[in-house]
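Subject: sequence -> structure tokens, single chain

Hey, anyone have a minute? Need the predicted structure for the following. Not urgent.
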Amino acid sequence: MSRARAEINLAAIAENLKLIKSKTSAQVLAVVKADAYGHGLINVAKEAEKAGADWLGTALVEEGIALRNGGITKPIISWLTPLGEDFKTAINLDIDLSISSIELLNEIISVGKSINKVPRVHIEIDTGMNRGGFGGVDPARDPIADIAAGKTPETKNEAKADTLFFVQTGVFSQRAEADAQKANLAMQGIQAQLSESAVDGNSVWRVRIGPFGSIEDTTSVRSKLTILGIKPTVIRVNRS
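Reply:
Had a minute. Here:
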């Protein structure tokens, strides 16, 4: 018998959601990623739906699929959508998908055409956290209009041929620890390199992936790292 147990009060969750709903006229999205933060994906989602949630949100596509298969009828959005996910099932189940790169958009469009159904998508913009989305987008332009026209959104970074981008996954004071992370990334199909530098006279090793020609090109690997539980940081380096 387990020494620890969690008792989830679904009625309390419902009351919390109703209180939020009573304070705003905006639509409310109930986030139920990671098994509803350990509270039980399907049970919490159903309670949220009954309490008036307008949307249900998940990180992973498979979580969104599980919600729909579990009887959830409200709109669902899944926002961590790297290349190669089960987009066919998601589109068939009317799950909204987050788009963070042209490459990903093209794949989802292709899947939609193969099943003769228009996907529902949301455009993700990187506003500075460097975790995902279209980065460096010029606010004077409308990236959604560019995407609808089949164009890559213009960015402030792409025109700078003298700039390179790396995705950094960690900084270590011990070479062995950096080597261990590099090996773990290789097991996930991600090739990284070590960069040694000095901080206050002591050597540190940075684990980096790249180089990339633009911040847009880092989107796919950043999404994969986030799914793996690794916080990516984008580093900009001048060639000169």
